[in-house]
């Protein structure tokens, strides 16, 4: 039984993360929603942050947490989110910096630069600004865990959307470098790198995925991987999540 199934069944033992406070960006939908449920089931108090206030509030209600509207591409909004979590729950121990978009920026001279800015804003600035905003709060608690959502697109070439690949590779690079850099602060920084996972972000790709008989990873498997990272001791790792395989840190050559 996954953590999320256990929460839905009312079996909240609350052990592993009891007393911890978690922020989940992009928590209104897909992987963020599933992870908010998993963190809450493990006992954490969860602040759901998203630009989608309607769905975000629903998830917050579901996990008995709080909602904060936040556009992660805005530094001040990230700071306000952390302030909110501290006021609401007294501190922050975990940040799942997950909000993201796949805008389809095009290729070569046809790059759509407005879409590029939007994608970089959510997928890369969201992680950098989120980290910048949350670090003082984590240090104030004596340490903590940050998990950023990268992607298989951060580990392999993405010919269909090179700019999505570029911002996800940047998140992978951040995880590899920030992991060791933040160790003296007792802050662990890892990335989660799912292949195609069940969420609305893959809607435009569903035809291609079914044609190629590509398996889709349940969102709960990604959520359970994030939980495993948060409760483990790894840092600077990029956890590759594939369908039908045990998640594991990606081994760079
Ligand atoms: P999703 O569309 O279901 O969820 C993304 C959430 O992020 C939405 O609730 C959206 O409102 C929110 N969001 C978007 N831009 C935002 C912003 N600027 N500020 C705050 N919130 C914002 O898709 P998902 O698949 O759950 O995406 C979550 C993350 O997973 C993304 O970073 C995505 O790139 C990554 N990812 C997804 C897959 C997949 O196959 N689903 C695979 C690898 C990585």
Measured distance between first and last alpha carbons? 35 Å
Oligomeric state of the chains present here: single chain
Mean pLDDT: 94
From the spread of the alpha carbons, the general shape counts as globular
Organism: Streptomyces lucensis JCM 4490
Protein name: Dehydrogenase
Keywords: Oxidoreductase
Family: Belongs to the short-chain dehydrogenases/reductases (SDR) family.
Map the helices and strands.
Layout: H1 3-8, E1 21-25, H2 30-41, E2 45-50, H3 53-62, E3 66-69, H4 75-89, E4 94-97, H5 113-140, E5 144-149, H6 162-182, E6 187-194, H7 206-211, H8 219-231, E7 238-241, E8 248-249
Parallel strand pairs: 1-2, 1-4, 2-3, 4-5, 5-6, 6-7
Antiparallel strand pairs: 7-8
Helix pairs in contact: 2-8, 4-5, 5-6
Bound molecules: nicotinamide-adenine-dinucleotide.
Nicotinamide-adenine-dinucleotide (NAD) binds next to α2 and α5.
Family: Belongs to the short-chain dehydrogenases/reductases (SDR) family.
GO molecular function: oxidoreductase activity, acting on the CH-OH group of donors, NAD or NADP as acceptor
Organism: Streptomyces lucensis JCM 4490
Description:
GO terms for molecular function: oxidoreductase activity, acting on the CH-OH group of donors, NAD or NADP as acceptor. Keywords: Oxidoreductase. Belongs to the short-chain dehydrogenases/reductases (SDR) family. 44% of the residues lie in helices and 15% in strands. The mean pLDDT is 94. α2 crosses α8, α4 packs parallel to α5 (113-140) and α5 (113-140) packs parallel to α6. The protein has an eight-stranded mixed β-sheet with strand order 3-2-1-4-5-6-7-8, with helices on both faces. The chain has helices at residues 3-8, 30-41, 53-62, 75-89, 113-140, 162-182, 206-211, 219-231, and strands at 21-25, 45-50, 66-69, 94-97, 144-149, 187-194, 238-241, 248-249. It is of the alpha/beta class. Residues 25-26, 28-32, 50-52, 70-73, 98-102, 122-123, 126, 149, 151, 194, 196-197, 199-202 line the site of nicotinamide-adenine-dinucleotide (NAD).
